[in-house]
Write a structure and sequence with these properties.
The complex is a heterodimer of chains A (148) and B (91). Chain A is α+β, with helices and mostly antiparallel strands and 148 residues long. Chain A has helices at residues 8-70, 82-90; strands at 96-102, 109-120, 123-134, 136-140, 143-147. The radius of gyration of chain B is 27 Å and the shape is rod-shaped. A two-stranded antiparallel ribbon of chain B has the order 1-2. Helix content of chain B is 49%, strand content 16%. The chains are: A alpha+beta (148), B alpha+beta (91). Chains A and B meet through helix 1 of A and helix 1, helix 2 and strand 1 of B.
Chain lengths: 148, 91
């Protein structure tokens, strides 16, 4: 290429500008992708924290239901069925809870899975956590107490 | 316009000037501030840390959420005869 020829540097400038435009486009795409990644990370963290919070909420709600049932029995034992507890816990619109087992008596045990979901730009993040709550009923009717 | 200089012609100097200005612009743009997503994530993390600390230590002050889209709030709940708001922090 003869640089002293008219128009030579115009070609070089055009190439340089085109290259710079590509860098700019690449940079913009990177920023967009990074934003999206951060949003997904945030949603993931949100789902985990919600699941952690949900465990406590469902634990306390189970206590409440079992204790209410036990206080209706003279011997302070729970006769609550899994279906009844599931129906009561479904009223809590926090995360989804799927009970797999509930034992009755003075030491009821609640087992299942808590599932929390978060949606970000059509991307769904699911946090599922298995749990087992071991409870102990004590006291005398109608002032039964529950510990867990 | 084409004038011969000692090393570069005016066309060449113009081209170099354009390249330098564009490149400087990109550098300034990149150094200006973290991306919106990164900033939001930092604010959210900060709000979450404050809220979880309040939640676990039993603090009583709850931030009021604002309509500012740049404000991130995190809430934690407790169960006591129904779900009650235990902690809310905004950042």
């Amino acid at each position: 290429m003869q640089l002293n020829k008219k128009g030579s540097f115009a070609v070089i400038t055009a190439i340089a500008v085109a290259a710079l435009l590509l860098f700019i486009i690449n940079g913009s795409l990177n920023v967009s992708q990074t934003n999206n990644s951060f949003l997904k990370m945030q949603a993931g963290r949100e789902a985990v924290l919600d699941a952690e919070n949900a465990v406590r909420i469902y634990d306390k709600a189970s206590n409440s239901e079992i204790l209410a049932n036990a206080n209706s029995n003279p011997s302070c034992t729970s006769t609550l069925s899994s279906g009844e507890l599931q129906t009561a816990l479904d009223l809590i619109d926090f995360c989804e809870i799927q009970l797999t087992n509930l034992t009755q008596g003075t030491s009821p045990t609640v087992s299942g899975k808590i599932i929390c979901k978060k949606n970000v730009n059509g991307f769904e993040i699911t946090e599922a956590r298995n749990f087992t709550f071991n409870k102990t009923l004590s006291g005398t009717f109608p002032n039964c107490t529950i510990t867990s | 316009m084409e004038m011969k200089g000692v090393i570069f012609t005016f066309d060449a100097m113009l081209a170099l000037a354009i390249v330098i200005v564009l490149f400087s612009g990109i550098v300034i743009f990149n150094l200006a501030e973290p991306t919106t997503g990164a900033n939001q994530s930092l604010r959210y993390t900060n709000a979450t840390d404050l809220a979880i600390n309040e939640y676990l230590t039993g603090g009583e002050t709850k931030d009021v959420p604002t309509s500012n889209p740049n404000t991130n709030c995190k809430e934690f709940f407790e169960f006591s005869s129904g779900i009650v708001l235990e902690a809310r922090k905004c950042s």
